[in-house]
Amino acid sequence: MTPRSILIVEDDKDLRESLLDLLVIEGFSVVAAGNGEEALQVLRKGGSFGLVLLDIMMPVMDGVAFMHAFENEFPHLIGTTPIVVLSVLAGQVHLPDWVTDAVAKPTSLDKLVELCERCFYTLH
To answer: Which positions carry 4-aspartylphosphate (predicted)?
Structure first.
């Protein structure tokens, strides 16, 4: 795993690129995927991340389907790789117990950076 590495899974291109730019400026190593299937492909190719920021509503493969596939394909990462749901549906969708946090969009960029920092400080 690359220190302070984040996988962003977000279908909104503008938001995805803004998050990527912000987190890189804050010193994180970031890879972005446009949907759950793209994120799984990154992980299958050996991508290793200290945190996953996950949207729920996405085309091709939504966040709920991604979480099921993640749990089935990468059970060794459950509990060691924080998953933070970042979605307008945060609090409205049943999430697995192993999801670290759920944050409603929109959220302030400062709050998001603080959450990322906390995930790395607490779990790594």
So the answer is: 55
Structural domains in the chain, CATH included, are: 5-123 (3.40.50.2300)
Computed on alpha carbons and rounded to an integer, the radius of gyration of the chain in Å comes to 13
CA 111 to the chain's CA centroid: 15
Does 106 sit behind a cis peptide bond, omega within 30 degrees of 0 on the bond before it?
yes
pLDDT in tens, the chain (124 residues): 456 899 999 999 999 999 999 999 999 999 999 999 999 999 999 988 999 999 999 999 999 999 999 999 999 999 889 999 987 766 677 788 888 888 888 888 888 898 888 888 765 5
Maximal CA-CA distance, the chain: 33
* The residue type at 28: F
Question: pTM above the 0.85 mark?
Answer: yes
Interacting residues of 57 by C-beta distance below 8 A, sequence separation 6+: 11, 63, 87, 88, 89
